Every structure is written in structure tokens, then in C-alpha cells.
Amino acid sequence: QQQVKQSPQSLIVQKGGISIINCAYENTAFDYFPWYQQFPGKGPALLIAIRPDVSEKKEGRFTISFNKSAKQFSLHIMDSQPGDSATYFCAASYDYKLSFGAGTTVTVRA
Amino acid sequence: NAGVTQTPKFQVLKTGQSMTLQCAQDMNHEYMSWYRQDPGMGLRLIHYSVGAGITDQGEVPNGYNVSRSTTEDFPLRLLSAAPSQTSVYFCASSYSTSDWQFFGPGTRLTVL
């Protein structure tokens, strides 16, 4: 049973648009919430991460929004570019263990 | 720094064969872990280690063994391969349990 539920499974966005990926969790022991980006044939790479005492974190065009009471967090990709086309995984961590969502494949159309 | 390296990149096994997937890191990270990635399921933790001589099971440990004799290396052993173990395997490392994990390039394993 997946501890982190991620949606949508895939999305298509026009260049310059906003991509939004949502994740939800149940285990309140999670204390670290990273997002990973993965290109075909490559390993996942950390994109941005947040801790539960912060409601929002922004790095360039990427923003994490975190709602501790709802046990939900989301990734917003602003001004989406063709180079952002990849699979994105949300994750949650506690006690040395990282649990991943199922992934969202983002396609940015030029 | 080479980061996290994995060998081999590709491997085909027959059911019942054994093999070892190699993982090494040169960043002096204490924490290392193995994940498998299957379509529609994300990455699932197989085994992890918080330091040399210390290992523990993750979410899907059955059919896999690990050991950690040095800080740098964390091999994953398949004792008797099964078709259900066909997957892409990733090794990762980090300085601490809540720090971000650096992933290797992966090993694509097919068991016939």
C-alpha cells in the first residue's frame, strides 16, 4: 500500500503554462518532503524539498505548497518549458525511510 | 567526485540465477539505500544502511540481501532471481536520514 498518493498520473501543458502536481499522505511521522525529477534512462534528481514547519518554498520556477493539517503538498511549475518534460515524484521521509508517490509524467508542448 | 556509481547498467538473468548489483559512492555518505522502480509504482525501498556494518529492511526486502562492510560500497544480492524481480534498481546515498538522497544511474534487470 502506497504511503504517498500522487496525482495526476500524467499531464500536458503548453509552454509558459503552469503545471500542478498534488500529493497526499497519512503518516504524520513524516518530517521531510522532497520532490524528484527524472528523465528517461536517468536516476531521480532532487528538485526541491520542504519540511512540515514551512507552508511554502520557492526555488526559481518551482514552488512547493504544504498543508500540514490536510496532509497534502503540491508542486507548481511556473512558466513551464519543454526542458521540464520529465517524470516528477513526490516523496516523504521519516526514520531513514523514503516513501515515493507513483509519479507524474509532465509533457510541455512548445 | 564520481558521485553514486552502479554496475552493471543492464543485466539479463535466468530464473534461479544469482547475482550482485554493485553500488559505490565517493562522498563519504553514511546513509545508503536500494530502491526498485516499477511502472506506475514509483520507487520502493528494498534495504538501507545507516553506516558500515548496519543494515535494515525497507518496504520490499524479500529475495534480496545486502551488506555494508565499508562506507563506500553497498552491494545488493539476488540469491535466486525470479521474474518478479525484473525492474530498474537504483542506489542512493546521503549524509543524514533527512538530507536529500543522491541517486545513481540505475541498473535495468530482466529475469527470464
Sum up the structure in keywords.
heterodimer, A: 110 residues, five-stranded antiparallel β-sheet, 11 strands, B: mainly beta, seven-stranded mixed β-sheet, 0% helix
Concise description?
With 110 residues, chain A is mostly beta strands. Chain A is 0% helix and 57% strand. Chain B is mainly beta.
Notes on the protein architecture:
- The complex is a heterodimer of chains A (110) and B (112).
- Chain A is an all-beta fold and 110 residues long.
- Helices cover 0% and strands 57% of the residues of chain A.
- Chain A has strands at residues 4-7, 10-14, 19-25, 33-38, 45-50, 56-59, 62-67, 72-77, 86-94, 97-100, 104-109.
- In chain A, strands 2, 4, 5, 9, 10 and 11 form a 6-stranded mixed sheet that branches. Chain A has a 5-stranded antiparallel sheet with strand order 1-3-8-7-6, with no helix packed on it.
- Helices cover 0% and strands 52% of the residues of chain B.
- Chain B contains no helices and 11 strands.
- In chain B, strands 2, 4, 5, 6, 9, 10 and 11 form a 7-stranded mixed sheet that branches.
- The A-B interface holds A 2, 4, 6, 9, 31-32, 34, 36, 41-46, 49, 89, 93, 95-103 and B 4, 31, 33, 35, 40-45, 48, 50, 56, 58-59, 90, 92, 97-98, 100-106.
Largest sheet composition of chain A: 6 strands, mixed
Based on CA inertia axes, which overall geometry of chain A fits? globular
Whole-number mean pLDDT of chain B: 94
Contiguous runs where pLDDT drops below 50 for at least 5 residues of chain A: none
* Helix content range of chain A: under 10%
Which spans of chain B of ≥5 residues are poorly predicted at pLDDT below 50?
none
Distance between the termini of chain A: 37 Å
Quick one: biggest sheet of chain B?
7 strands, mixed
Number of helices of chain A: 0
The SS-based structural class of chain B is: mainly beta
Shape summary of chain B: globular
The most extensive interface, with participating residues per chain, is: A-B, 26 and 26 residues
In oligomeric terms, what are we looking at? heterodimer
Please state roughly what percent of the residues of chain B sit in beta strands, choosing from under 5%, 5-15%, 15-25%, 25-35%, 35-45% or over 45%.
Answer: over 45%
